[in-house]
Amino acid sequence: MASRKRARTSSIGGSSSSSATAPTITLNGGEACPTKQVALWRSGRLTDTVVEVDGRSFAAHRLVLAAACDYFERHYDHEHLRDAEHPKLLEHVTAAAFEPLLSFLYEGACSFDESLLAPVLRAAHYLGVPSLESAAVAALTERISPSNALTAWTWGEELGLPELAKAAKVTALEGFDEVEKIEEATLVQVQSLVADDRLTAKSEEVVFSAVARFAEAKQPAEADLLELLRNVRFPLMSRPFLLETVRKWPMLQTVAGQGMLVEMLAPNAGPAQQPRAGFGGRFLYVMGGAGNDQEPLSSVEIYDTLTNTWAATTPLPTARTSGAAAVLGGKIYALRGQEEGHEDDEDDPGEDDPPTDAVDVFDPQTCAWATGVPMTTARHCLATAVVGGKLYAIGGNTEGQMLPIVEAFDPQTGAWAEMAPMPTARSAPGVAVLNGKIYVTGGFSSERDSVNTVEVYDPQTNTWATAPPMSEKRRVHGVAALGGKIYAAGGLGDDGPPTSRGLSSVEVFDPQTNSWSAVAPMRAERWCISLTAVRGKLYAVGGCNDTADSLATVEAYDPQQDRWEAVLSMTCARRAAAVVSMC
User: Fold this and answer.
1) DSSP-H helix ranges across 108-247
2) CA geometry: angle at 161 spanning 158 and 163, to 5°?
3) CATH number of the domain at 187-273, please?
4) Is the peptide bond prior to 87 cis by the omega test (within 30 degrees of 0)?
């Protein structure tokens, strides 16, 4: 849906009186009467009926009213009503709304204060003027914002206008942080929002706080409250918030309430463990990588997914490529990878390229980089993941040696610690988090071949297990989780030179079927790409094409339509860049 005009909020509420400050709106789409007939009506000549609304009288012609309005057709065709001199509209219609409606019947268009838009819609709906109703719905839809979305949603439901209700819900999902008066929503509306994976908010703490305000205002039955809360993703909240706010919330101080919390916080709680597709903000941060001269880059670009624009921000402290990055605690942790020398040869990784253990931390509030705690093992062509408030550095290589090493950084202790190593040493793997577990896909094996094997790490038990392999062997590919599934895109396939080939294919792992299946391929072959999920879509950023040229192009995948579309290219061609999404 297109972005909404959030400055306008008065038009949805539906004042019955004209506002001195409201702008004028014009609705079109009706069938105009002949000019002479309109002039006669305007002058009050030859009219044959009077309609009374709110104590006001409106002179008109019966044939005009009956021909354009279902209500008046029924009225004047009814044997007990056809001789009534003054039809009276007692419900649903105000005089302020009937006046522009009458103009629409005669002239096919009407202009009025925007504050009357909702009353005009109501009048058009109840009197049966479909063309005016459609025009009013379109105008209301354009003016929906998070501040009035719940009101518009209710109007859509009350008037049987599913397109208006749908548009209002989507707006509320897209701007949940800004939704006003959640206390006035219905239980069904709040349930529908919180259960939707597309809900976009700064954090799951915000979602819980909104649900709590609603529950305190409406006092739903405990069974209804607990059913609603089961859609809140408690495992994604910070420990202090869980302990100090959630567990101490008075409405959860029951046996059933505490039992629900224990259940929802247990490992393997399904979707409750996964970040919402709407989370991850609206911005893509693209950091470093290498250009066509194969030299590492320090530049950082930010892509705004809503405005389809790129902007530069503070560059990295050092140029680097084949590193990795992740968001932890609202900051970007960039693991440097390779800083010197030529771009890594994907078919002979890391022979001469010095790796580093350095970590840089970016604060988006200050747009400044700071030095982080270095890893225990220097490496590049590694992957990262964040689970349970910890940052994991996975695999990679150093001086051509593939690494099974996994280490985790805990911001609470400020230290890295080694975890159980991967069963398979891997360089340039793809990594995604699903249901609280880390899936590691493909990469270079210790024999320097591409592999299609997949291994799964459980942070709760510090153990690894095997998952179904991908259908394609892939290395330097892109991997991301979206909508409870894992997508693997592009990369280099087969077993090294001379059979290496760039891939455009994309496959998806569904944990429900425990299998991989193909989806629509990318528009171009890409390897050394970055794949990131933002607001319900996947973004494939940069990489190399079949002639090993670095790419500035970006494309986005919509899983609902199973289709890739090009978006605005970066200002700089780059491969092996680190990419994250943020608010």
Assistant:
1) 117-127, 130-142, 149-158, 162-174, 187-194, 204-218, 222-229, 239-241
2) 135
3) 1.25.40
4) no
Q: How far apart are CA 511 and CA 524, in angstroms?
A: 28
pLDDT, residue 522, reads 98
Q: Cα–Cα distance between 59 and 74 in angstroms, integer?
A: 18
Q: What is the 3-state secondary structure (H, E, C) of 339-395?
A: CCCCCCCCCCCCCCCCEECCEEEEECCCCEEEECCCCCCCEECCEEEEECCEEEEEC
Displacement of CA 9 from its chain's centroid (Å): 23
Question: For 310-326, how does the pLDDT look when each residue is reduced to its tens digit (9 = 90+)?
Answer: 999 999 999 999 999 99
Is the torsion defined by CA of 236, 242, 246, 252 positive or negative? positive
Phi, psi of 495, rounded to the nearest 5 degrees = -110, 35
Question: Which pLDDT belongs to residue 80?
Answer: 54
Whole-number Å distance between alpha carbons of 291 and 179: 43
Cβ neighbors of 133 (< 8 A, separation 6 or more) are 121, 124, 125, 161
pLDDT digits (tens, 9 = 90+) for 30-71: 999 999 999 999 998 998 888 888 889 999 999 999 999 998
**CATH 3.30.710.10 domain residues, the chain:** 10-177
365/582 Cα distance (integer angstroms)? 12
**What does the DSSP assignment read for 523-540?**
SS--BS-EEEEETTEEEE
Residue 247, phi then psi, degrees to nearest 5: -65, -25
* Domain 283-582: assigned CATH number: 2.120.10.80
Does residue 16 contact residue 94 with C-beta atoms inside 8 Å?
Answer: yes
Point out the residues of the chain with pLDDT beneath 70.
Answer: 1-22, 79-90, 268-274, 277-281, 340-353, 495-500
What the block records as the tokens of 244 is 């100090």
Would you say 237 and 389 are in contact if contact means Cβ atoms under 8 Å apart?
no
Q: What are the residue ranges of CATH 2.120.10.80 in the chain?
A: 283-582
pTM beyond 0.70: the answer is no
d(CA 579, CA 430): 13
- The pLDDT of residue 174 is 83
| Ranges of CATH 1.25.40 domains, the chain | 187-273
CATH code 3.30.710.10 for 10-177? yes
pLDDT at 347: 43
What distances in angstroms separate CA 412 from CA 234, 238, 242, 300, 416, one per listed residue? 20, 12, 16, 28, 11
- The residues facing 507 across adjacent strands are 488, 518
